[in-house]
UniProtKB/TrEMBL annotation:
Protein name: GTPase Era, mitochondrial
Keywords: GTP-binding, Nucleotide-binding
GO molecular function: GTP binding; ribosomal small subunit binding; rRNA binding
Species of origin: Drosophila lebanonensis (Fruit fly)
Highest classification ranks of the organism: Eukaryota, Metazoa, Ecdysozoa, Arthropoda, Hexapoda
Cross-referenced SUPFAM superfamilies: P-loop containing nucleoside triphosphate hydrolases (SSF52540), Prokaryotic type KH domain (KH-domain type II) (SSF54814)
GO biological process: ribosomal small subunit assembly
Region (G1): 69-76
Pfam family, one: MMR_HSR1
Amino acid sequence: MMRCSFVARALEQYNKQYKFFLISTRSVSAATQTNGTTQAGKSVPTLADSIPDSGAENKQRALHVAVIGVPNVGKSTFINNIINHRVCPTSAKVHTTRQSNTAILTTGQTQLVFYDTPGLVTQREIRKHHLEQSFKSAYRHAIQHADIIAVVHDASNSWTRKELHPTVIDTLKAYAYRPSLLILNKIDTLKSKRVLLDLIKTLTNDTLAGVQRGKSGSCVPKSDSDELEKGTPLSKRETSWSHFDNVFLVSALTGNGLHDLQDYLIDNAKARNWRFEGGIHTTNCPQDLIVESVMARLLDYLPQEIPYKLKCQLEYYGEEKSVIYTSVQVQCPTARIERLICGEANGRLRQITERVTSDLVEMFGQAVSLTISTVSGGKKDLSD
């Protein structure tokens, strides 16, 4: 009965213009939890228990969040909008984020640090898309430095939304001692409350406080890193996770739910010294952000797999009288691809340059003069 009344309240909130709501799996029902243990007697970590309190005399508070998920679920858009500052390049194609980015929100005495990671991929996907091997280690490094794991899941994709990807399950198993949140993104595309409720029940294995309904709780098994490469039959793969601390419904694009999620993270921050100065939004250097922004727009403007064959290199970076002057060279494997990028009379290249310039102005908060050049077989074209 308690669960039913809680879900009813959640639906009432959602019904008001797709308002954000949160389902807590730690405090909804005291009947399913005793002293923080599951029915099997196995301790399930909570966010509050995982971070040491360094003392009330320290006024600064902080929380570090590793944001993970499969490619193209909206991780970078989520981070940009929750800190209200563009620090992560975005595009409509997969694998826009090629390396980990650190985003920082400092508000009052609290600092939230978000680690944006490349999409979780298998070794097979790395070979298919010619990705760097760092894709396999970037998320591990982020989680090891985080207090909590935030799993972003695309609720709009009817083909994949009913199960967590095997790489996500594998990661959660490997770091089961870390508290975790499930963030269902893109809820603005869904009109049915029933779909969302069913989705929550499916992805969390219909659990409260980490206890399976109708089944005895069990210890989280150790991750088998070779399981995905061997090709586990789909019927035997796990597709849900029973140990999420909370479930959030958000739209990173429209901003619905982000303020409440931000408040939740701030409330759970613990007393500790900030890792970064209060005035910065990212630790990434401007030069890297410029190159990543060019690559992101090439992904948007070019068809199919063509942009993944390109290499971007910074040629020049300087700042004078509050204006950033910079130049990026795009290395093309063939002259045909170079002509495709440039377009007729360099029209497409100018469009890309204008779009990237707009992104960089938003990112740096100052005027930017950008030149993008292409090169193939020694021939070089310019657009500024």
